[in-house]
Design brief:
Blueprint: E1 2-7, E2 12-13, E3 18-24, E4 28-29, E5 36-39, E6 45-51, E7 54-60, E8 69-75, E9 82-83, E10 101-104, E11 111-114, E12 119-120, E13 124-130, E14 142-145, E15 147-154, E16 159-166, E17 170-176, E18 192-198, E19 203-204, E20 220-226, E21 233-239, E22 244-247, E23 250-253, E24 258-265, E25 275-276, E26 281-285, E27 300-303, E28 308-309
Parallel strand pairs: 2-10, 12-18, 19-27
Antiparallel strand pairs: 1-3, 3-7, 4-9, 5-8, 6-7, 8-10, 11-13, 13-16, 14-17, 15-16, 17-18, 20-24, 21-23, 21-26, 22-24, 25-28, 26-27
């Protein structure tokens, strides 16, 4: 009868070679690799050493190096195992310790990067969470384009937080390098990435003209555009309708500061028929060479300066 099956590794491991000590309740012979199989794995080579009551079974090769999941050492019956009297082993046991099952974990931790929003208007917090317990993360393992990372701290055994400061308007991409951390079995982590966009807040502004006012010309409203980054930004501003004027029409927004714009209803509004009108003022970041930036990066809109025109 089989008494004990004791694993030679932790019951959860990333080892590529596994072993068990197998103990019978009496001396036996005929114990060889043909008397065992490793369930849950494929292509594995088994070898056996020992004598008397105690033997060591070793499993290697096959898909063990890449396998995630449980394997179990099992005895095959009937087999060539017999006691000193020639009685065949019937497959009973183990009656005491049973560590025949081992969980293999050969996958690295997966990283998930999150921020509170996919658009930011200034410094923000990035959270980096792994799907299992991991070792410490270093700030040097986090790459940031169009921004700077600082103040990395651990939240718990699986996650971290880090402060991100945008450099200027546009897309900010944060990447955790592959192998930045390891799980508790030594498996290196996968890479992770997140992109957000640094923008200035958008306003919707209504310019209302009282019914007693004969002309809307001269009505105006103010709003500001902020620079969320650490680099000065050159801008230009324009309206999509001829009856709106925006000042200043160009200039520089200092890093971390804002510029106030005035949107004025000009003389062209006097020719409008009675009704409701909407215009949009766009403030856009200019490129280094003077051309407008591509895409949404740096675009700031003032929405719905509107009024009712009267004859």
């Amino acid at each position: 009868m089989l008494r004990n099956v004791v694993a030679g590794t932790d019951l959860r491991t990333a080892d590529d070679t596994l072993s068990w000590t197998v103990e019978f309740d009496e001396d036996v012979t005929g114990v060889d690799a043909s008397g065992f199989t490793l369930a849950g794995a494929s292509g594995v080579s088994l070898s056996v050493s020992g004598s008397g009551r105690t033997y060591t079974v070793t499993a290697s090769g096959g898909n063990l190096a890449d396998l995630d999941g449980e394997v179990q050492l099992q005895l095959v019956t009937p087999s060539s195992i017999v006691d000193v009297w020639g009685n065949a082993f019937a497959g009973e046991g183990p009656t005491n310790t049973d560590e025949s099952r081992i969980e293999l974990d050969n996958s690295g931790p997966a990283a998930t990067l999150t921020a509170l929003s996919d658009e930011v208007v200034g410094p923000f917090t990035l959270t980096i969470a792994f799907d299992e317990d991991v070792t410490d993360l270093a700030l040097s393992d986090l790459a940031v384009t169009n921004g700077e990372a600082s103040n990395l701290s651990r939240i718990d055994t699986r996650s971290f937080r880090v402060a991100i400061q945008p450099q200027t308007f546009g897309v900010i991409t944060m990447t955790v390098a592959a192998g930045a951390v390891e799980d508790l079995l030594g498996n290196p982590s996968d890479a992770g990435e997140l992109s957000v966009e640094a923008v200035s807040q958008q306003d919707e502004i209504d310019v209302e003209v009282n019914i007693d006012v004969t002309s809307p010309v001269g009505a105006q409203v103010q709003s500001s555009v902020s620079n969320p980054g650490v680099t000065d930004v050159r801008f230009s501003a324009s309206a999509d309708v001829g009856w709106l004027t925006v000042t200043p029409a160009q200039g520089v927004i200092p890093a971390g500061a804002s510029v106030e714009f005035t949107v004025t209803v000009n003389d062209q509004a006097a020719a409008l028929e009675a009704g409701d009108y909407t215009g949009t003022v766009t403030v856009v970041r200019e490129g280094v060479s003077g051309g407008a930036s591509a895409g949404r990066a740096g675009v700031r809109r003032f929405r719905k300066p509107c009024w009712r025109a009267f004859p």
